[in-house]
From TrEMBL:
InterPro entries: Transpos_ISL3, Transposase_HTH. This is Transposase IS204/IS1001/IS1096/IS1165 helix-turn-helix domain-containing protein. The lineage of its organism: Bacteria, Bacillati, Bacillota, Erysipelotrichia, Erysipelotrichales. It comes from the Bacteria. Transmembrane segments: none annotated. Residues 117-166 form the Transposase IS204/IS1001/IS1096/IS1165 helix-turn-helix domain. It comes from Intestinibaculum porci.
Length: 214
């Protein structure tokens, strides 16, 4: 009996056998991974960066001119861009996608635009999946901005900006006007702390029963 063949036949249908690599489903809409490389991290000694290189499929939205509505085509000009993805311990990952420049077929318009990246976060050069993961960590009281930055490999200023938008979405109507509370707090917790420059102070107020930031 060929036990090797038997072992292969009994593998799950979702199992992919590939020496040296793990093939993991991703949320990178339209991205086709053509090559993967490992680089040294220039900012951190003994750290590596996995670079997923590939191309982005042209969407129907990419093919429509925003100026005149005519059809657009790829004009053979490409530009690679890197977007930060998840980190695995000391190893960071980035997606390097080659984007096409689209050109309008209308000779009176002749407008150009770069291909869109649907999986990129709106405000930062990180993936939407990574941004959503950061928001989930921010919603837990056990993580600070610094610890999230170290865990994900995303800069503290970016984490802070994501947190600010999250708080505005949760507690304001239009980004400025605070929402009226559904119920009033029974116990308040107030903590005043010094900011990084040492000349300004901030006050942190929470609902002691729920832990919600007020």
């Amino acid at each position: 009996m060929d036990y090797t063949q038997l072992a292969i036949n009994t593998q799950s249908k979702n199992t992919i056998i590939d020496d040296g690599y793990l093939k993991i489903p991703n949320t990178l809409t339209g991205f086709i991974n053509t090559d993967t490389e490992i680089e040294d991290d220039p900012k951190k000694a003994d750290h590596k960066i996995i670079v997923y290189k590939g191309i982005q499929t042209v969407s129907d939205e990419d093919r429509i001119c925003e100026c005149c509505g005519a059809h657009m085509y790829k004009n053979m000009i490409c530009a690679p861009t890197r977007i930060k993805h998840f980190s695995y311990g000391p190893t960071s990952t980035v997606v390097e996608v080659s984007l096409n420049q689209m050109q309008c077929t209308n000779p009176e318009c002749n407008a150009t635009k770069m291909q869109g990246v649907p999986f990129k976060a709106k405000h930062h050069r990180i993936t939407k999946a990574l941004e959503e993961f950061i928001e989930k960590l921010l919603g837990r009281a056990s993580f600070t901005l610094k610890s999230i930055s170290e865990l994900t490999g995303v800069g503290k200023n970016i984490v802070k900006a994501i947190d600010l938008r999250r708080l505005k979405r949760l507690y304001t109507v239009d980004g400025k006007t605070l929402r009226k509370p559904q119920k009033f707090c029974k116990y308040l917790g107030i903590d005043e702390f010094k900011l990084h420059n040492g000349y300004k102070y901030a006050t942190h107020i929470i609902d002691m029963e729920t832990g919600n930031v007020l």
